[in-house]
Amino acid sequence: MAEDFQAAVEDGLRLSKRIYFGKDRAVAPPKPPTEMDRSSEHPFLPTSPMVYAVISNPSIVDNPDMPSYQPYVHGKCDPPALMPLQMNGISMEVECYIDTAFVTVNGSWRVHCVMGSRSCDCRIAVPMGEQGSILGVEVEIPRKSYSTQLATMDESDTGPGTKRHASGKGKIDGGTNLSVKLKWSQKLMCHGGQFTLNIPFKFPEYVTPAGKKIPKHEKIQLTVNSGLGTEILCKTTSHLLKERYRQAGKSVFLYDSDVLSWSSSDVSFTYTMSSNDTSGAVLLSSPPLLDVDRREMFSCYLFPGNKQSRKVFRREVVFVVDISGSMKGKLLEDTKNALFAALAKLGPEDLFNVIAFNGETYLFASSLEQATAATIENATQWISLNFLAGGGTNILLPLNQAIEMFTDSRNSIPIIFLVTDGTDKDERHICDVVKSQFTERKNVFPRIYTLGIGMFCNHYFLRKLAILGRGHYDAARDVDSIEACFGSLFARASSIFLANIAFENLDQIDELEVFPSEIPDLSYESPLVVSGRYRGTFPETVKVKGVLPDMSNFSVDLSVQEAKDIPVGKMLAKQEIDLLTAEAWYSDSKELKEKIANMSVQYSIISEYTNVVLLETERVVTTADSAVGRRASNKVNDISAEAPKPRNILVLRHNGLGFGNLTATDENIVPGSSAPRPPEAGDAYIKGASRCCGWLCNHRCCWCCMNVCSKMNNECANLMTQLCGALACLGCYSCCDSCNGHEG
User: Fold this and answer.
1) Quick one: pLDDT at residue 729?
2) Known Pfam families for this protein (predicted)?
3) Can you tell me the distance from the alpha carbon of 730 to that of 616, in angstroms, rounded to the nearest whole number?
4) Sign of the C-alpha dihedral, residues 630, 633, 634, 635?
5) C-alpha span between 396 and 393 (Å, rounded)
6) Under 8 Å CB-to-CB from 651, ≥6 apart: which residues?
7) Helical H runs in 73-205?
8) Fewer CB within 10 A of the end CB, N or C, for the chain?
């Protein structure tokens, strides 16, 4: 998929040689990729927000301002070529609240590669940072604008003006300027009390406009709010950010400059908070006006601090790894490499075992083994010999075997590390069995960490298992990110220094609901975030208790304060929607699904129970009198009044992760390959849209494109083709046409 995307961009760059820029040698055409660029693993995947012209007919490629009158080109581009558009300006505004960043990017691009008398579709691709989630897209072109919104499934089916197919009117004319506004949220990475923000912002040379004196301007504004009132200490920054404002717990930085060339590095900003010790706070907030849940909101944050001398718990870990037929090739090799790296990080005082499974189980040892150098070497050889892809997927048996290996032990944290790419037909039963196991074995409570690979496993089942086991879940949706995701999740499990965490003096609060329902441990790799809803009066302080690696008791009093400048609901919405969706899958509660849908619409977070709707607004010119009419006739761009008439032109269904694909699992289809979606997602329109986007689809709805663009680095996940052909084709009635098999 990445190769297909890159081939399309490379074809587009070849077509750009047809564009004529005149005889003035001072006007240089866009620079092609250098040999160094081409030598990278994925040289043509987006490393910044990008807009492409979708070219099926190469004869339309030309300079809209200066035609070259080249000979007609016979033939078509199949699949279409992607020509990167020249960028005229870019600005970014980032607001960081505790561990969450909200990013808004405003950019301007020009369709510089299509003759003025012709038009084309345009496609937007945006790589995002850690756990990125699209919040909205707006596109402005002359006379029209496009925007996205979420709607419940009932509303999107019955909304006014909703169309499933339309005529091919919405293409973008050559020479048109597009103004694009993108919004998304992402997480900050945390290690040892240090927070790092990474946003892809590396623009290739070939998006630089051709011209003598075309001004180029970049602007980045960054606001950091710690939420604790503690001092923020900037450590490193990629761009020349200057501090413009500072008060306790809040700083504002600005980079605003005319540049000779666009940014060649990602936006990276690292900071710490002044506290060395474990600290935190509780923030209170009232629900938004339209929130269906009228209970008050709270959010509790516990930070590890930056004291590096603390001990961590001794580890007892059982790696439970899927070796079914679908794990063949690169998937299994990358998983083995990640497992080798994890084993190398164990110390002689740690205990471990490895269980491989498909329809059966294969154990490295009958019990936990000491992680000596010799034993690790034996395990490495055993894995190399026995990790052979084949067979089906049965998760319950190895999970039970792993749980039974743990006995009552002190100074250690028992950990089950489950890795799978498939769906099990008895997943709810597996959750029931795990719950009963934990109830019966009160002296031992293994933490369950789960890693889902690709899009055929049930990510909500894996999340539910992690919730039950007080662990964490992660997903390597892009198969190239297995080693990175495995490594970061294991680092989190390996750096626990505060366990069995409990919140006291909350007994008097009415209708208390806590997310997650089982409180995870605190590690050096991330802060602990616990949120919830309540009625009544919240105490002035909250006491947090836990156990340290030396088995001594730990407690800290957290101050409770009103969240004045921090959007608590907006910050926590994605986490709560994900946790509630796992519970809704498990309980099959209609009421819970409706609640999730309403939250999704309220906070613009894509969910399993909402649809993405693309809205088109035509700005209609009206004249108050004849004089105004005459002026309007003389000046095409003189619009005296506008009467927006928004209408739904595309409804995109099934935008979430889905609940696994049992058919693909049974047939051992490798993640990343095309496979039939589950019956509930087999809507004919989606099948048509997948043909339209073809090789450019993945996670969220356009499955492949999420995969493609996320390969730029291990932290990035693609954005824009969550909107499938919708925004991918902007005015993209043509996307709908191609769903019908029409040209375009």
Assistant:
1) 40
2) VWA_3
3) 9
4) positive
5) 9
6) 151, 156, 157, 159, 162, 164, 611, 612, 613, 614
7) 153-158
8) C
The total of other beta-carbon atoms located within 10 Å of residue 662's CB is 18
d(CA 133, CA 720): 10
The structure tokens listed for 249 are: 């717990």
- What's the pLDDT score for residue 191? 81
With beta carbons less than 8 A apart as the criterion, state whether 601 and 608 touch: no
CB 617 within 8 A of CB 142: no
Instruction: Count CA within 13 A, CB hemisphere, residue 421.
Output: 33
**CA dist., res. 332 & res. 714, Å (int):** 18
Cα(298)–Cα(513) distance, rounded to whole angstroms? 10
The answer to whether the beta carbons of residues 290 and 602 sit under 8 Å apart is yes
How far is residue 480's CA from residue 710's CA, in Å, rounded to a whole number?
A: 9
For 67, residues 6+ apart whose C-beta sits below 8 A from its C-beta are: 20, 115, 116
SS3 282: strand
Distance CA 13, CA 50 (A): 14
**Mean pLDDT of successive 10-residue segments in the chain (744 residues)?**
83 86 59 58 86 93 83 81 94 94 96 92 87 91 90 67 40 93 93 87 90 82 85 89 88 93 94 78 89 90 76 94 94 96 95 96 96 97 96 95 87 94 95 91 89 94 96 89 94 93 86 92 91 92 93 92 88 93 96 94 93 85 46 41 64 82 90 57 31 32 36 38 40 36 36
Report the C-alpha gap between 421 and 675 in whole angstroms.
Answer: 14
- How much is the pLDDT for 42? 73
